[in-house]
Design brief:
Layout lengths: L12 H8 L30 E2 L15 E2 L13 E2 L15 E8 L9 E8 L2 E9 L4 E6 L5 E6 L6 E4 L9 E2 L6 E3 L7 E9 L5 E9 L11 E2 L3 E2 L2 E2 L5 E2 L5 E3 L2 E5 L1 E2 L9 E6 L5 E6 L24 E2 L5 E4 L23 E6 L6 E7 L3 H6 L10 E2 L3 E2 L5 E2 L1 E5 L5 E5 L15 E3 L12 E3 L2 E4 L4 E9 L2 E2 L5 E7 L7 E5 L2 E9 L5 E6 L6 E4 L20 E3 L2 E5 L3 E7 L2
Parallel strand pairs: 3-38
Antiparallel strand pairs: 1-2, 4-44, 5-6, 6-7, 7-8, 9-10, 9-12, 11-12, 12-13, 13-14, 15-16, 17-20, 18-19, 19-21, 21-22, 23-24, 24-25, 25-26, 27-30, 28-29, 30-31, 31-32, 33-34, 34-35, 35-36, 35-37, 38-39, 39-40, 40-41, 42-43, 43-44
Amino acid sequence: MSEPRAVLGPLSIALWLSVACGSLVACGGGSSGSGASSSSGQSSSQSSSGSQSSSGSQSSGGTQPTSRTNVLTYKNDVMRTGQNLTESVLTPSNVNSATFGLLRNLMVDGKVDAEPLYLSQLSISGTAHNVVFVATENDSVYAFDADTGATLWHVSLTASGETPSDDHSCSQISPQIGVTSTPVIDPSAGAHGTMFVVAMTKDASSNYHQRLHALDVTTGAELPGSPVEVTATYESTSFDPGQYAERAALLLENGTIYTTFTSHCDDGPYGGWVVAYSESALAQTGVLNVAPGASGSGYANQGPAIWMSGGGAAADANGNVYVLTGNGMFDTTLNAQGFPNGGDYGNSFVKISSSGGALSVADYFTMSNETTESQNDMDLGSGGVMLLPDLTDSTGTVRHLAVGAGKDGNLYVVNRDSMGEFNASSNNIWQELDGVLGSGIWSTPAYFNGTVYYGPQGGSLLAFSVTNARLSSAPTSQTSTQFEYPGTFPVVSANGTSNAIVWAYENAGTAVLHAYDATNLATELYNSNQAANGRDQFGAGNKFIAPAVADGKVFVASANSVAVFGLLP
């Protein structure tokens, strides 16, 4: 994997919550621990931005949310939809440069590649705070009061005598590698709630370490048994922590934390590791390498790694985990079950089961021209996977679908119940829209109310309507802004199905936050370059940035800060 150089009608809120509420926390669960723990075994495809009624403090600008929202995981939920349906403050009528803008900029000690996370009304030393959590490539984690900007705590995840990792002569994560992936929070774990985060370090003997940390969300203190070294063996291959970066976001599902790893540029040898841990004991519960062979003509000892532009593995209601893989080895000789006989899944949708206490590939889809695309560095896994809510097709059959796209500019929709496997002659999948994205995808999509949003690199942010469980054959609306590499990572805020806004980040010389009407992307409501005298500018652009929206505020990273936007006082 290398980067470039240089018809369903509108879903009601009740229907969505019935689809989206599951095991990470109960919808409405907050920092008090009233929500169900992620180890409770409930169904999985839940929105981790669940709201909670509260009379808490007013947000900046004097507008009080009618509900409280937590952002506990990448793109808000384990389906990775990017939607927050409990936003009661920000609306298309008040998000404009006259009434909305930069409230404060929270400076930190390194690049911010992880999405900020958020807990509302978290009790710290007897005082309730709305807290935004920020992780940096300098191996730091911060907790800030989102309303005042005060630093509540700051911890370093480097052990004594260690530093963050160097960049391995690879510009993809540079100049140092610390915390790259988005952490995950379980507000019901531990005494006060727990953040799980993977940090990479280098010791005085030039040994590299990947460690899983469990931090108390009120203090940043390591919990008992934390951290643990990420070590693993699959078949005859051992995991080498120096060869990998933990880039894709952590997934917490049914009490299990899933970590996934990518390479440094295409510096082999590397495979496609998934390593799972119990959140309660931090004990390893499963290991899978989706490229144990990792060798073949044109890409010896390479991949496929699990990259997904920082997007996290997704999970369905049955606890199955989904990833997209990058270019690399795929065994075109299939076994009797139709699976690659060597277990190598280059350029694939991969469905992973933990049934029986072990990780295994339950199903997959691989494009018919995988070998050609892999040899030409045309990754499918340059983009992230997203699961769609239950959709009904034209025959009245309920479909369980997932979408993904990569460097070839095609949009692939697979049936999660029968993903299509590999056929050298054709792609036997639910829907394929060739070239519809216009250019390649190095970003993750979003979903809201019967619409899928994609932000290709060098192109417009695009909206595709969903009717009878199929995406429109062409965009139904698009932005006038063209988003340079890596494109944009949309998220959506709405109050149920009302007042929906699509938020998008532009990686320009100066970072730009955009807001669009979700029903028509041609209508731009706001961008951070509109106000006079650079009032809302917040720093240099960075890649792979997804905003987080909660309780009337938008949290978005620059190269060395997280900006807080909201209604102006």
